[in-house]
Amino acid sequence: MERLQKILAQAGIASRRKSEELILAGKVTVNGEVVTELGTKADPTVDEITVNGRSIAAEKKVYYMLNKPKGVITSASDPEGRKIVQDYMKGVKERVYPVGRLDYDSEGLLILTNDGELANKLTHPRHHVPKTYLVTVEGVPHGEALEKFRRGIQLEDGMTKPAEADYYDVDTDKKQATIRVTIYEGKNRQIRRMFDALSHKVIRLKRISFGELLIGNLKRGIYRPLTKEEIDQLHKGIKQ
């Protein structure tokens, strides 16, 4: 017997927190009875559990890596008809969802899974999972600017946590630089806003790693399943 919110998270329905909201809203039933109490337990191998009238099954957990192209949104749908990451997941039968986000103008490593519990842990700032990017900006930030990155930068929604920032490449002819940045949180468009605060416009932003998972030579717009070793690495990289 497991708590209902844990069952929903493990089935890839939503994170535990979102699953609790579904339960409190009366969207979940167990054997035909609406359940609104968060402590309720059930056995997914025996009990019939539905969310919004739809039965859930103990779906096999799957984990994928996608090299998201620029100009694609990390959303299940888009009313404007733009490309979404699921457009690139042809052949995947399970319902998979992006772990965190890469904004429309960003590219690179994106994890997709139906393991809602793992996804929630990977994206929660409390677990300090590092995400590394190569960021090309206009101009060449001086050392003091990068030191501000390392200390934290005041944004309109609060101070950023200490990050890592080092020169990766400097092109004096084009008057631009590529900075290798590692952050441990995920505020909306955080890196772009941090560089904006330093008066350096972002030209290109590419995520190259998530925890110990590296994008390697995966081509743009292509996905592949994670290996068992890579999945284990993601779990081990979550600090309690």
From TrEMBL:
GO terms for molecular function: 23S rRNA pseudouridine(2605) synthase activity. Residues 2-62 form the RNA-binding S4 domain. It comes from the Bacteria. Transmembrane segments: none annotated. SMART domains: S4 (SM00363). Keywords: Isomerase, RNA-binding. Its EC number is 5.4.99.-. Belongs to the pseudouridine synthase RsuA family. PANTHER family: PSEUDOURIDINE SYNTHASE FAMILY PROTEIN-RELATED (PTHR47683), RNA-BINDING S4 DOMAIN-CONTAINING PROTEIN (PTHR47683:SF2). This is Pseudouridine synthase. It comes from Paenibacillus hunanensis.
